[in-house]
Amino acid sequence: MTTPPEQPPAHGPAPGDEPTRARGDTDPRPDAAPGSPSDDVPVPTDAVPARRVRRFWAVRRIPAAVLAALVLGGAGLLLYDVAAVRSDRQAMAWRRELADGLATRPLDDTWVVVGAAVAVVLGLWLLILALTPGLRAVLPMRREHADVRAGLDREAAALALRDRAMEVSGVQSVRVRMGRSKVAVRALSHFRALDEVSADVETALAAGIEELGLAHPPALTVRVARPPRKA
């Protein structure tokens, strides 16, 4: 009695068996939420975390040049006089008078007090220049990139806000005083109700200040009045 030949096994996977993955494939995360970022998604490198934007510091070339010239001239003159005395020569007249005056004048003398006051004022002035940033006319802007710092001139910002206020219906003239922390706007309206014009000017200028991109948006103050009557 002959037996039937065995059938070759099927090439498909058996029921319940997992298909073999190709090398290099990664298992999906079952717990990952839809739309969550993947590990292979590039992260932008130009994003800057929120941090405090500082003001621009002035170079102050003129005060530095004047101080350097005075120190260099005084030191050179004093060194020349000391070298002359060491060479058995007579000291300069100003140095002898200064030494005699410091030795004989009392501390409450008028010229001593005046000289001390001048020295104190100069010292305070130099300390203020060293500790304050200066450049009050430049307003720092928001930093969108780590390597870029931008500033806006106060006069240019005031002109931009003035143009925005002039676009409001009923405004005849506008005067803008731009400060580092406050903006004072005075407008003249020749028609429409003053309350309506003031509200529209505030809305337009609030949007204009936001579009300037300043790091520290200034506070806005708006005053609307009628133009003076002609005689």
Characteristic terms for this protein:
40% helix, 3-stranded mixed sheet, two-stranded antiparallel ribbon, alpha+beta, 231 residues, single chain, 5 strands
- Residue ranges: pLDDT <50 for 5 or more in a row? 10-48
Biggest sheet descriptor: 3 strands, mixed
Strand order of the largest sheet: 3-4-5
Overall 3D geometry?
elongated
Number of strands: 5
Alpha-beta classification = alpha+beta
SS field, number of helical segments: 5
Report Rg.
39 Å
**H/E series:** HHHEEHEEHE
Average pLDDT score: 79
Strand content: 5-15%
Span between termini:
136 Å
Helix percentage: 25-40%
Ordered list of secondary-structure elements with their pairings:
Layout (H helix, E strand, L loop, with lengths): L60 H26 L6 H12 L5 H22 L6 E3 L10 E3 H13 L4 E8 L3 E8 L4 H19 L6 E7 L6
Parallel strand pairs: 4-5
Antiparallel strand pairs: 1-2, 3-4
Helix pairs in contact: 4-5
Give a written overview of the molecule.
- This protein is α+β, with helices and mostly antiparallel strands and 231 residues long.
- It has helices spanning 61-86, 93-104, 110-131, 154-166, 194-212, and strands at residues 138-140, 151-153, 171-178, 182-189, 219-225.
- Strands 3-4-5 form a 3-stranded mixed beta sheet, covered by helices on one side.
- β3 (171-178) and β4 form a beta hairpin.
- α4 crosses α5.
- The N and C termini lie far apart (136 Å).
- Residues 10-48 have low confidence and may be disordered.
